[in-house]
Structures are given as structure tokens and as C-alpha cells.
Amino acid sequence: MKAAFPVSVVVPLFAVVLLGQSTDSEAPSETFHVRGTISGPLGGEVLPGAKINFQNVRETRTVIADGKGSYEVDLPLGLYTITAPYEYVIEGSPERVHELLVRPPFRVESPTRIVFNISMCAQRPGEPPSRPAMRGHIGGVTLVTLPSSEFQVYIRYPTRSSGDRVYIYDADQLFPLLVEYNLFTLRAEHVVYDSKSQTIEASGNVMVTNEFGETQHATSVGFKLSDGQAVPLR
């Protein structure tokens, strides 16, 4: 009878040790899968060996495009930006120019598979490289931070004009017009962005791409941008 007493003491202590071990271990975080291709400014030539960086608040994950310009990676769920360094030669100059493409923040909240096909910024022959800070109104990049939002509207354009709270962007024969917002991508010949209503109206060979790489073509479309969503106006 007395021999049973120490056993009854040892068993709860062992259980306590196991309980402590289980609370210290962390369950594997859920992930999403992202793949795509990376191409040059005009979209025709792929860029094998290019580096694509996915950055969140904790770390930066770098993947290298293969010989066909394709990449893929599994990432923990969360908010990310994409950066991709590249270099090119300006016509008539022996110097190589170093640039950094930045895709604005996007968020993935559940395990899924998404597609981002990345196109580098275009430069007109003989012009200095573009920067996130504007180069006047002849070609450049606009980053618009929406009120009370973690997302930005990225607009890459050849030409721009402006009116009362309205900004007008146009493509030309050589260089495309690109709009990115969270997981939404749009290409068109003409875009009007209304900063007060936070809407965009696009026309001319419009191509809208969702996070799954699915594309839709239209003559003209309109979207309300809010809380990371591009909601059709009609």
C-alpha cells in the first residue's frame, strides 16, 4: 500500500512536464503559394536569373527566376511587398543603370495559390531612370495611399495630366499603362483616377487580372477602390 504513494506523485509531475513542452512548441504557420513570370519593360522578353524579394514585417524571402523567367514560392500568410532589382543600359551610354521595381502591399489571409506576373518599368530611350518620386509629368510612377488603409494604388504611366481632384493617365504606342492595388492588376490605354471618390475609370484595350492569373478584356470598366478590394461600378 505504501509503495503506491510515490507512483501517484510521479505521474502528475510527468504530466506537468509534458504540458509545459506542448505549450512551448509552435504549430506550423499556414502558407500560400505564389508563382509567375518576370519580364522586361515591354513584356516580350523574360528575365532568367532575376531576383524577386517578398518582404513582410519579419523577413525577406528571395527567389530566383529560372531559365524561362518563371518563379514560385510558398510564404506564410500576411501582408507583403514585392521588390525586384534590375539593370539596363540607356541608349548611347556605356553605363548600366540600376533600378528597383516595387509592387505595393498586398495581403493573403487564407491558404491559396496566386499568380503575379511581374513586368519591369519601361524607359524611353535616352531618358534618365524613373524613381518613385515623380519625374515631372512625362512618364513615371504614382503611389497613392488611401485613407485608413494599409494598401496603396500603384499607377505606372507614360503621360499624365490633372484637373480638379482628377488625374488622367495615358499609354502610348511603346509603353503600357499599369494599375496595381492589393491583388488586383489592370492594364489599359486610358485611366482616370478620382481621388475624392477613390474610383478609377479605364478604357481602351482594358485587361483586368485577378490574383489567380485569370484575365478579362473589356472596352471600358470602372472600379471603386476600398479596403483592398476593387469593386466594379457597374
Task: Tell me what the structure shows.
By secondary structure, the chain is mostly beta strands. It has two domains: 29-123, Sandwich (Immunoglobulin-like), CATH 2.60.40.10; 130-234, no CATH class. The chain is built from one helix and 17 strands. A six-stranded antiparallel beta barrel has the order 10-11-14-15-13-12. Strands 1, 4, 7 and 8 form a four-stranded mixed sheet that branches. Strands 3-2-5-6 form a four-stranded antiparallel sheet, with no helix packed on it. A hairpin with a 2-residue loop joins strand 16 and strand 17 (229-232). The radius of gyration is 24 Å and the shape is globular. It starts with a helix and ends with a strand.
Main traits of this protein?
four-stranded mixed β-sheet; mainly beta; 234 residues; Immunoglobulin-like
Structural topology:
Layout: H1 4-24, E1 31-39, E2 51-55, E3 60-64, E4 70-76, E5 78-89, E6 96-108, E7 113-115, E8 118-119, E9 138-145, E10 152-162, E11 166-170, E12 177-181, E13 184-188, E14 190-194, E15 199-209, E16 215-226, E17 229-232
Parallel strand pairs: 1-7, 1-8
Antiparallel strand pairs: 1-4, 2-3, 2-5, 5-6, 9-10, 10-11, 10-12, 11-14, 12-13, 13-15, 14-15, 15-16, 16-17
